[in-house]
């Protein structure tokens, strides 16, 4: 059973950058779709970025296109989210998630089966 642990969150000024990491254990991510989700205070959890080898696509929310990049390291069994040009509205708890590739359809938190505990990103001047 796959376990996910996020790291890399913190306080950053607007325009700054952070790289979030997601370490997987108990199973490989090679056959799973992966994604990053976030939840701001008083708002629902939303998909930020997802990747699936089965569907052959990478998804980015409109609000982060051109600023965020999702990547994988299959040897280390890790997933990353590089966040550039951060804005105050990016402030949220960020979660790493995964699901078996054959089950993946959309970058929707309801579709994901495995979740990390989250890491807080605060963008403020």
What does this structure look like?
With 125 residues, the chain is an all-beta fold. Strands 2, 4, 5, 6, 9, 10 and 11 form a seven-stranded mixed sheet that branches.
- What does the overall shape look like? globular
Order of helices and strands: EEEEEEEEEEE
**Mean model confidence by pLDDT:** 94
The major pleated sheet works out as: 7 strands, mixed
Structural category is mainly beta
Secondary structure elements and pairings:
Blueprint: E1 3-7, E2 10-12, E3 18-25, E4 32-39, E5 46-52, E6 57-60, E7 68-73, E8 78-83, E9 92-100, E10 114-115, E11 119-123
Parallel strand pairs: 2-11
Antiparallel strand pairs: 1-3, 3-8, 4-5, 4-9, 5-6, 7-8, 9-10, 9-11
Considering the chains and any ligands shown, give keywords for the structure.
7-stranded mixed beta sheet; globular; single chain; 4-stranded antiparallel beta sheet; 125 residues; mainly beta
In short:
By secondary structure, the protein is mainly beta. The chain has no helices and eleven strands.
